[in-house]
Specification:
With 240 residues, this protein is an alpha+beta fold. The chain contains seven helices and seven strands; from the N terminus they run αβββββββαααααα. The longest helix is centred in the C-terminal third of the chain and has 30 residues.
Length: 240
């Protein structure tokens, strides 16, 4: 008898889930471009961590997918900031045409680039304290005993791995963004003389963990980065 009741509950949940998915799904299609060059970007993964759906842009930057209206999706491509978007607050339609952009981790182009005005050290410190935080959409959902479908799906799909991959990439993106803001500040104040085209190479050279940037004082961070800059400068020939 208990087995029959369990099968009934499982079947009821499955029917409810299918009914919901059929009435709440929408079609999205669009294009993704580089925010600086305005050129189409191919190979961008559009990831839905809720369903583990992943589609990629074609060689012209176009994509299509079917999602739930309330889903939050992420744009992922190595070398670019991982970006999230949603259509939940948009006017209700069956199909949405989107034109999205993603920002490269490095803004250095073939020609000279003017470094943006740096943030204040207080603004950077406020951002440092938030390092390691990721969107709540990537948190592991609580497993309810009354939801065997969710439990089985979470256990046997690549869902959890996809979320962890995105969380790791977003943490790395945030770390490099703040590191570059610090380098802009040090350049502006004459503490270092590092070309922007060398930023990524220098960040890799320093290999400082998120915890160092998040929990140390401005003095300790500045002292460490300048010491690393002097080593890097001598090795790379920037400092004669």
């Amino acid at each position: 008898m208990r087995i029959a009741v369990s099968v009934f509950v499982f079947s009821l949940l499955l029917v409810t889930s299918n009914a919901y998915s059929q009435t709440d799904t929408v079609r999205i299609k669009g294009s993704i471009a580089d925010s600086y060059t305005k050129r189409a970007v191919s190979g961008v993964s559009i990831i839905n961590p809720k369903s583990s759906l992943t589609v990629a842009t074609d060689n012209k930057g176009f994509f299509e997918a079917t999602i739930h209206r309330t889903d939050t999706l992420f744009l992922f491509l190595p070398g670019y900031h991982t970006t999230k978007f949603s259509i939940a607050d948009s006017a209700k339609k069956n199909t949405y045409v989107l034109h999205l952009s993603i920002e490269p981790l490095s803004t250095s182009l073939a020609h000279d680039v003017v470094i943006k005005a740096p943030k204040t050290i207080e603004q950077i410190e406020a951002e440092r304290k938030k390092l390691g935080l990721t969107p709540k959409e990537l948190d592991r959902p609580e497993m309810m005993i009354t939801s065997p479908i969710s439990a089985l799906y979470e256990m046997f799909s690549g869902h959890a791995q996809e979320r962890e991959k995105l969380k790791g990439q977003m943490k790395e993106d945030d770390k490099r963004k703040i590191f570059k803001e610090l380098l802009n500040y040090y350049n502006e104040n004459g503490l270092i003389d590092l070309p922007e085209k060398n930023y990524d190479d220098f960040i890799n050279f320093c290999n400082l963990p998120i915890e160092f940037l998040k929990y140390n004082s401005d003095y300790e961070i500045t002292k460490t980065i300048i010491a690393q800059y002097n080593k890097y400068g001598r090795q790379s020939g920037l400092i004669k």
